[in-house]
Amino acid sequence: MQDTILERIARSPAYNTLKRKRLRFGWLLTIAMLLVYYGFITVIAFRKDLLAVPIGEGVMTWGIPIGFGVILFTVVVTAIYVLRANSDYDELTAQVKREVLK
Amino acid sequence: MSPITFFPRLAAVLALSLTPGLALAAGAIEGAVEKQPTNWTAIAMFGFFVVATLFITKWAAGRTKSAADFYTAGGGITGFQNGLAIAGDYMSAASFLGISAAVMLQGYDGLIYSIGFLVGWPILTFLMAERLRNLGKFTFADVAAFRFAQTPVRVFAAISTLVVVAFYLIAQMVGAGQLIKLLFGLEYLYAVIVVGILMMVYVLFGGMTATTWVQIIKACLLLGGASFMALMVMMQYGFSLESLFADSVKVKTDLALASGKTPEEAAATGIAIMGPGTFVKDPISAISFGMALMFGTAGLPHILMRFFTVPSAKEARKSVMWATVWIGYFYMLTFIIGFGAIVYVLTNPGLVSYDAKGVLTLVGGNNMAAIHLAQAVGGNIFLGFISAVAFATILAVVAGLTLSGASAVSHDLYSTVFKNGKADSASELRVSRITTICLGIVAVVLGLAFEKQNIAFMVSLAFAIAASANFPVLFMSLLWKGMTTRGAVVGGALGLISSVALTIISPSVWEATLGFEKGSAPFPYTSPALFSMVLGFAGIWLFSITDKSRRGDQDRAGYLAQEIRSETGIGAAEASAH
After folding, report:
1. Could you tell me the CA-to-CA distances from B439 to A38, B197, B204, B393 in Å, in that order?
2. pLDDT digits (tens, 9 = 90+) for A36-67
3. B35 pLDDT more than 60
C-alpha cells in the first residue's frame, strides 16, 4: 500500500467516523461488561449474603436470576455489538473503499 | 495402581479445581475408585464417532493442499460454523463434568465459576475480533508482530503459544486417560495413546478443515446431549425451577441430617446451595482469578487462530456472537444438570457412598454426576452416548491445541524467522506436519509422565499466561501507537515469566503438587493474573516509552498503516479461497 493511499484514507471522513464509532461503542460495551462482571464478583467477595436472600416464600434466591442475568447480559451485549457492527461498520468500510480506492 | 492415589487427581483435573472453593469439590472426593466395568455401549458409540470423523478427515485431506488450507481451512468457514467450532473448542469435558459436579456439590458456586469462563467473549468481540481478522493470516503472532521487528516478536509469540498449549494439552491428556478408565473401563495407557493417534490423524491429514468439523460435530453432540438431560429434569418438575430447587434443598437437608447434623445445621446446609458459598476465599483471589478467565480467553492461541478461518470481519463477528450464545446456553444447562444430579443421583443409595470421614462420594467419583444423571434420565443407551461425547470432547480440544502449536512452529518460527518469510507453502506445510507428529508424541509422553501428578493448576495456568503475556501484547499492539518491538518483547516476557513463577509459588503448586507444608506458599492467592497482567502491561509501556532506538521510531511510524488495515481490512491478505 502506498503512502498516498494511506494518507487519503487517514483524511477520509468516512474512515474517521468508522474509527471513532467503533472505538467508542466498543469501549462503552467493554466497560459495561467489566462493571457487570466485577460488580457481581465484588458482591460475592464482600456481601455474599445479599445473593442468598430469598425472593419470595420459596427457596429461590436473588442470586439465581442475577447469575443467569449475567450470562444473558453477556450474550445480549455481544449480540448488540455484532448486529450494529454488521449493519453500520461494514457500510462505512465500503464507503471508505469507494471514496479512496476508485 | 492404587485407586486412592489416582482419584483426587482426576477430580482435580475434571473439576478444574483452580480455586480453593472448588478445590473443595475436588478435595471432597477421597473414596476409592476402581476402573469401571467395560462399557461396550459407550465404546461402540465412541467408535461410531471416530469412524464418522475419520471420513470427514479423508474428505478434508482432499481439500488441504496449501499452508492456508492447513492453518485456516482456506478461510472458507462461515461465521455460524466457526461459532460452533469455537464453542466446541472451548466447552471441554472439564466444564461439562466438572461444573455439573461442582453444582451438585456446592450449588450456586458452580454457577459463579462457569460465568467466569463466559465473560471474556464480549471483550474479545468488542476490542479484538474484527481487527484480528483484518490483520492476521494464520496465527495471532501475525497480528502481534505486524509492525514490529519480526524475529523477536515472533519468537516470543511462538514460545508463549507453545507454553500455553503444553499446559492445556497435559491437562487434557491426563483428563482423557482418567476419563476413559471411568467411562469405558479401559486402561489409562490406551486412552492416552488413542487420543494421541487420533488427534495426529485429524490434524496431519485434515488440518484445520477436519479439526473444525470435529469441533462442530462434538459441539452439536454435547449441546444436544446436555439439552436432553436438562429437558428431562425440567419436565419432571413441570418446568418450574422453584420446585427443582426446593426438592434439591430438601435432598441436601436430608443428607445432612443423615450424616448426624442437628436439624438447624442440616437446614442451613441444605439452603446453602442457593447462594454463594466458599468459592470466593478472599477478594484479591476472586478478582485475580476473574481476570485470568476473562482476559485469558482473549489470549488463547488456539481460540485466536479460529478467527482466521472465516473470510471477513463480518463473519469473525458472527463467529463470536454464536460462540457466546452456545457457551452461555451450555453453562445454563450444566447448572440445571447439576441440580438434576442432586435430586436423581444423590437420592439413589446405589450410587452414593461415604468414606471413613463421612464424606459423600459418588460411585466412580463425583465427576460422574452428569454421567449417572444420564443413566437416570435416559437409560443405558443414553449413558453410553454421553460417555462417548465426553471423550469426543477431549479429542476436539486436543486437535485444536495441536494445530495451534504446530502453526506457531511452522509459520512463526520456521517460515518467518528461519526463512525470513520466504518459505514456500509446500515446505511450510511439511514442517507443520512434522511438528504435529512431534507434538502428538510429546503429548502422549507428557500424558504418561503426568499421570500421577497433581495437575489441577495447569488449565488455570494456561489462562493466566494467556492473560498476562499474549493478551497485553496483542491488545497494546492493536490499540497503542507508542508500542515498540522492545516493549512488546520485554513486556510479554515479563507477563509470561511472572505468571509461571507466581503460579509455582502459589498454594496449588507449592502445596498441592510440590508437597510443601500447607500455608507455606509464598504467594497466597489463587491466580497470578492480577499481578502478572499488570506487570505485562507496565513492561510494555515502560520499555516502549523509553525506547529511543531507530527500530522504535519505525514501529511507531508503522501504526498508521496497521490501523487502517485493522479498521477497514484494506490491504488484508485474503486467506479465503476465491
Report:
1. 38, 11, 11, 19
2. 999 999 999 888 889 999 998 889 999 999 99
3. yes
Cβ pair B281, B526 in contact under 8 A: yes
- How many C-beta atoms lie closer than 10 Å to residue B390's C-beta? 30
A25 to chain B: closest CA residue: B126
Which of B287, B564, B569 has its CB closest to that of A10? B564
For residue B174, give the amino acid letter: V
The pLDDT of residue B21 is: 34
- State whether ipTM is beyond 0.90: yes
Residue B396 CA to residue B402 CA, distance in Å, equals: 10
CB < 8 Å from A in window 550-569 of B: 560-561, 563-565, 567-569
Question: What CA–CA distance (Å, rounded) separates B202 from B222?
Answer: 19
Decide if B332 and A68 are in contact by the 8 Å CB cutoff.
yes
Q: How far is B490 from chain A (nearest CA, A)?
A: 27
- DSSP state letter for B418: I
Q: Global pTM?
A: 0.89
CA atoms within 13 A on the CB side of B53: 30
Q: Label each residue of B10-75 as H, E or C.
A: HHHHHHCCCCHHHHHHHHCCCCCCCCCCCCHHHHHHHHHHHHHHHHHHHHHHHHCCCHHHHHHHHH
B27 touches chain A (CB under 8 A): no
Query: In which element (H, E) is residue B361 found?
Result: strand B360-362
Q: Let me know: does B148 contact B477? Beta carbons within 8 Å.
A: yes
Non-local (6+) Cβ contacts of B424 within 8 A are none
Quote the CA–CA distance of B91 and A45 in Å, as a whole number.
26
Non-local (6+) Cβ contacts of B441 within 8 A are B196
Residue with cell 469462563: B117
**Other residues' Cβ atoms within 10 Å of the Cβ of residue B256:** 19
Q: What is the DSSP letter of B517?
A: P
d(CA B188, CA B178): 6
Residue B475 · residue B127 · CB < 8 Å: yes
- Summarised one tens digit per residue, pLDDT across range B148-195 is 999 999 999 999 999 999 999 988 888 888 778 777 878 888 888 988
Burial of A44 (0-12, 13-18, 19+ CB in 10 A): buried
Residue B18 has a pLDDT of: 33
